[in-house]
């Protein structure tokens, strides 16, 4: 095949929204539409199933966001895009192998781990990272099946949407999650939880929350959970008032807070669980008991500084809690042989072109999504990010792969003994999970839409045997 006849071969590492959007935008790019170039894309993921953050990061009771899977599914049906699951970059596939088989590689590996918080007591039994808990309730194959839900009182640190997800799931009654795809072990764990109070702490003021209005309002929809606000936390300075006036998102958030404050004053019947929203308090220390278990959290009171910031007052407030979840942001993980900015937790890149220590682009290597720009922004913002990356990829395009034949890739993985899954395999696993759901019931006796398979081996077995059965049909 001459170089100008063959398609540009592109590998995408990570089958989450960032990787799938990049593949989609590449396959629908102007250069492709105008016939200047053809593309053939393989998306790899270390998990046997695709969809990354949507499957393993979005809360189960967020069907609207989980629904993004439908549009990602459609993209993956494109015959120019293949899926190879259960393949880990750096372990099952090296950079040299990728370079041999592809003209360009896009890293879209996201951010999976929690940012660290350096306060005394953070290592105590009962102190957790939100990302680990999210992975557990989303049935991630690589985390333990059991989660210790023994605490009656819980602190959640952070004022972003992950803090809201974690606080909502911790405070909800487990039966109310049966309409979702939560696995059986997660239902059983949450059902046994003795929780009564979940305290969410923001270090800044109410006008500096990072929640989005829809997600904040959703808290009020949990059955038998009262939202509790504390008058001393609800402080506004001139900078706060200016922010509320000029920013519709902040205005909407404060409107919700004001509404809840009014409802709280009128409340005559009380729920069995409470979700407290605290502001202007920074975590100072987690206090342990004699057995090394979390017994309390000490928070330092902050005050607004008049210029949009805060300053500590020195006043310490202690809350009895038996568990602490830090939801203070995610942090990307370093990939073998790829430059990494350890301060920001991202691949070193300029507008999606991977660069070396002298800021010189490394030919053929690109990044997109959270591993490119850091763990901020809603799923939609990943699209504009991917557009920038693939625009550069097409500008730079060069046919460099020694083995661009698509069939060389499964052969390479087979030779390496990698039990990879495919898009046909996902169809099989998807059908299996839906069948498990149809056979189960929610609290109202209705069939469930899906029950997730959690064990990696089981996912691989169902995918691989289902895919080969499809091939026999
Ligand atoms: P985030 O929005 O950046 O929020 C992190 C929070 O942690 C902020 O309130 C931050 O406070 C606080 N924080 C950071 N360091 C702290 C410290 N040392 N002590 C106390 N607090 C600290 O991050 P995220 O919640 O992980 O969310 C990541 C992205 O995913 C966001 O864009 C989010 O909207 C999105 N997301 C969306 C949904 C959804 O349902 N739509 C769900 C989950 C996540 P400061 O503001 O003071 O820095």
Q: Can you put this structure into words, describing what you see?
A:
- There is one protein chain.
- This protein is α/β, with parallel strands linked by helices.
- The chain folds into 2 domains: 6-110 and 330-419, Rossmann fold (3-Layer(aba) Sandwich); 115-327, FAD/NAD(P)-binding domain (3-Layer(bba) Sandwich), CATH 3.50.50.60.
- Helix content is 34%, strand content 21%.
- It has 17 helices and 20 strands.
- It has helices at 17-27, 30-33, 52-56, 63-66, 68-76, 95-101, 130-137, 161-171, 184-191, 213-218, 238-246, 248-266, 370-373, 381-396, 408-415, 423-439, 456-472; strands at residues 8-13, 39-44, 81-84, 104-107, 113-114, 127-129, 153-157, 197-201, 225-229, 273-278, 281-288, 294-304, 310-320, 323-326, 330-331, 340-341, 346-347, 349-350, 353-355, 361-367.
- It has a 7-stranded mixed β-sheet, sandwiched between helices. Strands 6-14-7-8-10-9 form a 6-stranded parallel β-sheet. A 3-stranded antiparallel β-sheet has the order 11-12-13, with no helix packed on it.
- A hairpin with a 5-residue loop joins β19 and β20 (361-367).
- α16 crosses α17.
- The protein is globular.
- The protein starts with 7 loop residues before the first strand and ends with a helix.
- Bound molecules: NADP nicotinamide-adenine-dinucleotide phosphate (NAP).
